[in-house]
Amino acid sequence: MAVSTMQELFVEELRDLYHAEKQLTKALPKMAKAASDDQLRQAFTQHLEETRTQVERLEAVFELLDVAKRAKRCEAMEGLIQEGREMIEEVGDGAVLDVGLITAAQKIEHYEIAGYGSVVALAKALGHENAAQRLAETLEEEKAADEKLNEIAESSVNQKALSQSNGSEMDEASGAEDDEAEKGHMAQTAGGRATSRRGPSGGSRSQSRRA
């Protein structure tokens, strides 16, 4: 549908967010299940409940505006959720994956903060004060969720991931040293066998020539 007025733009943006929030109600349980850190898992679970409330809040705003509760496909959110899905598939378990999940979740939060900030401003400009107030509640929840993710990352998860990474690097280095030592041992053994074969053979030939 062609958008020609500010009111139409406002409704289209609301429908975009409506679709985005509905997608998140399906994605957040998977992110919570993949998280190993208890605080992070709880944060995802808590935000899932907030997201369900935010869906209901958007439906209330549609009623206030007397427009159909219809979603508009949000390709941006689809892409962000796909990034999170790939993170779960490609990054190993443990704290490193937790850092990846926080990264993916904060990208989502920043998109929502931008989206809700815009619709709050549009609602105020159009004189929809009740709608603006409800949308502002969601905006504050998204900001708080983003801040919570920051706290979890900085208080524990980042350090755990660093320790896990250093441990993996030490294991790899130790494995490489063991491989080199084994190769050196094999080379020395092979050289010893070659020398022992040459010694008696050369000696017998020398004695034979002197005789």
Topology (SSEs and partners):
Elements lengths: L5 H29 L3 H28 L9 H16 L4 H32 L2 H82 L1
Could you explain the architecture of this structure?
- The chain is mainly α and 211 residues long.
- It has a single domain (6-157), classed as Ferritin, CATH 1.20.1260.10.
- It contains five helices and no strands.
- The chain has helices spanning 6-34, 38-65, 75-90, 95-126, 129-210.
- Helix 1 (6-34) runs parallel beside helix 3 (75-90), helix 1 (6-34) packs antiparallel against helix 4 and helix 4 (95-126) runs antiparallel to helix 5 (129-210).
- The longest helix is centred in the last third of the chain and has 82 residues, at 129-210.
- It is elongated and about 60 Å long.
- Residues 193-211 have low confidence and may be disordered.
What would the keywords be for this entry?
211 residues, Ferritin, 89% helix, 0% strand
Helix-and-strand structural type: mainly alpha
Shape: elongated
List SSEs in N-to-C order.
HHHHH
> What is the H level of CATH, i.e. the homologous superfamily?
Ferritin, core subunit, four-helix bundle
Determine the CATH topology.
Ferritin
Biggest pleated-sheet summary: none
Share in helix:
over 70%
How many individual helices? 5
In short:
This protein has 211 residues and is mostly helical. The protein is 89% helix and 0% strand. Helix 4 (95-126) packs antiparallel against helix 5.
